[in-house]
# Entry
Amino acid sequence: MQNVVAEISLKRIVQNADLIRERTEKPLIAVVKDDGYGHGAAEVAHALFGRADTFAVSSVEEGAALRTAGIAEDILVLTPVLSEEEALRAFAYGLIVTASSLASLRILLRARERFGGEPRVHLAVNTGMNRYGFRPERVGTACKILTANGIEAEGVYSHYYAPESRAALNAQRRIFARAADEVREYFPDCMRHIAATGGALAGGELFDAVRVGIALYGYLPAGFEEIGLKPAMRVYATVAQAGTFLGGGAGYGAAREQYGKLHTLRLGYGDGFFRAGGLGIGKLCMDACVREGDARFGRRKLVFKDAREYARRMDTNEYEVLTGIGKRAVRIYV
# Structure
């Protein structure tokens, strides 16, 4: 096969989810945004049937795709809708949308007035990450607007910016608790969630649910010790050329030495790997990787099984590695 092959273990994803659920004893919001961190959102969601109470995605488009794939559980869209048309689509597919500012809330109200439909809403609160969310002092205003328009907030959430720091985590937790209490004055059954993977493992108050992403796929954020998670993705590439070193190059650029046998894998930076290398004897080409040693033409070779180790060599994180590689690979589920 010319394409890179990503072998995905759904069994490991399920085991990772069970481990998180056992440790937290909280309902699981499974984060499957960016196509399940490159593992396949629909396949992961189906595998987690009966384990995840809710799924979280990045966009309305991702949420609609899950619905089309037969996912009936609640789906939370983490990015606020940016147009009335997106809001309409969210209403039509029964998605839970995020209201993170008065501007995003107004879009929902205009869409309802223009198209009909009832918004399902979680309020996002900025507790220090400064990405999305109402400032805590504006949460009451948002609740009053929802109440005046007959809309119930089904949830309120935030995101820790440094869950590995006890001081930062506690400060954000206090801000969130106060904001969530205010929301519950208007909506007593509102679900509260702030802990992603790091927050879920940091301990302390976890509120009503944990919102876990990277741990499902076998990894932890920086600053946390391993807890027995198992990586779910392995990547294989096919030998497309084998022969003897000639001249002075190794892919694009000069060879560091005079090599003997070389082989080329059909793998490159076009497949989401990093051009800087780490997999062969020089920089990657767009669709090829030159490696030292003999190999059989057409043989499939394991090239990647540990996103953490590869991320450290490339000075990035597991999130970027997994989402990049998973986009172009042909996925096989085992």
Q: What stands out?
A: Residues 54-208 form a domain with the TIM Barrel fold (CATH 3.20.20.10). The longest strand covers residues 233-244.
